[in-house]
Automatic annotation (TrEMBL):
One of its GO terms (molecular function) is succinate-semialdehyde dehydrogenase (NAD+) activity. Belongs to the aldehyde dehydrogenase family. Residues 28-486 form the Aldehyde dehydrogenase domain. This is Succinate-semialdehyde dehydrogenase / glutarate-semialdehyde dehydrogenase. InterPro entries: Ald_DH/histidinol_DH, Ald_DH_C, Ald_DH_CS_CYS, Ald_DH_CS_GLU, Ald_DH_N, Aldehyde_DH_dom, Aldehyde_DH_Superfamily. It holds the Pfam family Aldedh. It comes from Actinomadura mexicana. It comes from the Bacteria.
Length: 494
């Protein structure tokens, strides 16, 4: 690694820093003409590494490698693919501290949260190691008896995986593990902000014995042209993307000419409803989890707290106390409970949304005072009585800013929850089982947390409806995203 990065692994026995090249066909390569992509520590704004900056020419070679590796990998026995994924799962666990240090370095979250991410990331490897040997088919007699119908699942082919910066490792394993389990090969383009975790993961996979070309990794400062070039290549058969709805729409358009299979995990605007019969203390605990995980930089972060009038004062007081108690500081400092946002621009965007909401009448119950622009830290904010039409209630905040609006009837609460183009997750707090079931059925989203503020799990189908995306990741459903159904009709004389 480059200047400044030798501190990454301090105190971690045997940690060799991640590679800084690009991985194509099993070879670590330097960039053409030495082009490099700087990696910043969000806590200091300093450059901590420089990695190879891939160009469009590299895209073609990465697709060559993924396409060349596909026949052999797809024919590799499920048991062998499972064993390899299991070995990678073990290696990630053994090297959890290295991964956690890298995640905190390049993304900023507190070390304790990075460790949780590593465990979450490893779970996808274990789940899909188990799933690899459970791909089934059917055999049936045609209704008129003249044929037998055989259905089987085949890997879709070489895939392009585009991952975000907010979970630099888990969003990679959530795509790579089912792709490999299904027999697909991949070109991975990690976020330009967080390439180190991706490169270290690729290194760990290669050490575990992954054949050349099965996983190829290109980091780049010019994601647009690179991704476009890969999607134009007809050998690529699938795109899986996690990121904003705006970018997702553009990628869907680019995937259309090749009629690619797509999985789109896009933005959210999660409602968090606290009904009048809720256990309010539990709701406050859930709210802290759903709002502050990753500093609010998650598509499943609670964006709008929708609280029954009768319990709103207790909920707002409880949440305000918990937000004031947060220790904001560098993720590497064990005292920090909230790290920096990914960069100053993200912070300024959140501040702009807060200012706008206040200009439109929101009540600042917890507020940072005058926020100096320029660094990436943001103290938590709690705004009460936010108008449902305010910008902050219509957009994904991606920061530690909680907004509350109040309601009086169940119907009104559910209508407010659904008043958005997004539909990823919703949270509901109630002690009434009938009401919980009504809410699960009425909420327009792919996932519902009932009396809990955390729903992410490798064994569950993660994904959204409306403009929050297409397809699911995790569980056996996530495996189907990398398989296509083939049907053979076999003539059979009666
Ligand atoms: C995301 O924010 O994109 C994913 C969060 C999760 O998997 O919990």
């Amino acid at each position: 690694m480059q200047q400044g990065t030798d501190t990454v692994g301090q105190g971690i026995a045997g940690f060799t820093s991640p590679p800084t090249g690009m991985l194509v066909g099993g070879e670590w390569r330097e960039a053409r003409a030495g082009a490099s992509l700087p990696v910043f520590d969000p806590a200091t704004g300093e450059v901590v590494a420089a990695v190879a900056d891939a160009r469009v020419e590299d895209a073609a070679e990465a697709v060559d490698a993924a396409a060349a590796a596909f026949p052999h990998w797809s024919a590799t026995s499920p048991r062998r693919r499972a064993a390899l994924l299991h070995d990678v799962f073990m290696a990630v666990h053994e090297r959890a501290e290295e991964f956690a240090a890298l995640i905190t370095l390049e993304m900023g979250k507190p070390l304790a949260e990075s460790r949780t991410e590593v465990a979450y990331a490893a779970d996808f490897l274990r789940w899909y190691a188990e799933e690899a040997v459970r791909v089934t088919g059917t055999f049936r007699t045609a209704p008129d008896g003249s044929a037998r119908h055989l259905t089987l699942s085949r890997p879709v082919g070489p895939c392009l995986l585009v991952t975000p910066w907010n979970f630099p490792l888990a969003m990679i394993t959530r795509k790579v593990a089912p792709a490999l389990a299904a027999g697909c090969t991949v070109v991975l383009k990690p976020a330009e902000e967080t390439p180190l975790s991706a490169l270290h993961f690729a290194h760990v996979m290669a050490e575990a014995g992954l054949p050349a070309g099965v996983v190829n990794v290109l980091s780049t400062s010019r994601p647009g042209p690179l991704v476009e070039a890969i999607l134009r290549d007809r050998r690529i058969r699938k795109l899986s993307f996690t990121g904003s709805t705006g970018v997702g729409r553009r990628l869907l358009a680019l995937a259309a000419p090749g009629v690619l299979r797509t999985s789109m995990e896009l933005g959210g605007n999660a409602p968090f409803i606290v009904f009048d019969d809720a256990d309010v203390d539990a709701a406050v605990d859930g709210a802290v989890a759903a709002k502050l995980r990753n500093g609010g930089q998650s598509c499943v972060a609670a964006n709008r707290f929708i609280v029954a009038d009768s319990v709103a004062p207790q909920f707002v007081d409880g949440l305000a106390d918990r937000l004031r108690a947060q220790v904001v500081g560098p993720g590497a400092d064990p005292r920090s409970t909230l790290g920096p946002l990914i960069n100053g621009a993200q912070r300024d965007r959140a501040v702009g949304l807060v200012d706008d909401a206040m200009a439109h009448g929101a009540d600042p119950v917890v507020h940072y005072g005058t926020a100096a622009p320029g660094d990436a830290f943001l103290k938590p904010v709690l705004l009460d009585r936010v108008a449902p039409s305010a910008k902050i209630a219509r957009q994904e905040i991606f920061g530690p800013v909680a907004t509350v609006c109040r309601f009086s009837t169940e119907q009104e609460g559910l209508a407010l929850a659904n008043d958005t183009e997004s539909g990823l997750v919703g949270y509901v707090y109630t002690r009434d089982l009938d009401r919980a079931v009504r809410a699960i059925e009425a909420m327009e989203c792919g996932m519902v947390g009932v009396n809990r503020g955390h729903i992410s799990d490798a064994s569950a189908p993660f994904g959204g409806v409306k403009q929050s995306g297409l397809g699911r990741e995790g569980s056996e459903v996530g495996m189907q995203e990398y398989l296509e159904t083939r049907y053979a009709s076999i003539s059979a004389a009666p």
